[in-house]
Amino acid sequence: MKSRLNINGLDREFEADPTTPLLWVLREQLGLTGTKYGCGVAICGACTVHINGVPVRSCVRAVSSVAADEKILTIEGLSRDASHPVQKAWIALDVPQCGYCQSGMIMAAVALLREKPKPSDRDIDEAMTNICRCGTYNRVRAAIKVVAEGGDARTAGLSIQHSDGSIA
Ligand code: FES
Ligand code: FES
Known about the structure:
Helix content is 32%, strand content 14%.
């Protein structure tokens, strides 16, 4: 069945069974492979995208449940050149390790910061339920705080150990 979705500001057509998870339409039909498949059961958050600004686990969201006029945002739509403030903070603090979970992490962080520009540790704990096998949680938290403080790693008063062992 032919359907249409609004993704990253563009109307996109695709054909899929209505029960197909949104994740697979994004990845397989539309080539938006920045959104990852991890658990498939709404636990890990690797598949996080936004629908009308709300973070959604696309592995368990039937594509037919998303209306054509709802606004889907994937990691590809965040910026063309990794210039979104959250992406910049992620780069500045060397947040990713293998990287697999990170687009989901970033999408969750963007949603959190839109809702709460100055999140507390508790806010971060509650919003960032994504799983990272590489254990980047401390750097994820630090990068969110960098964005919240409106500066880069060096002005945010944070001490971050990078993957090469250096401290910034
Ligand atoms: S792949 Fe969707 S939550 Fe894990
Ligand atoms: S950076 Fe490897 S799973 Fe998170």
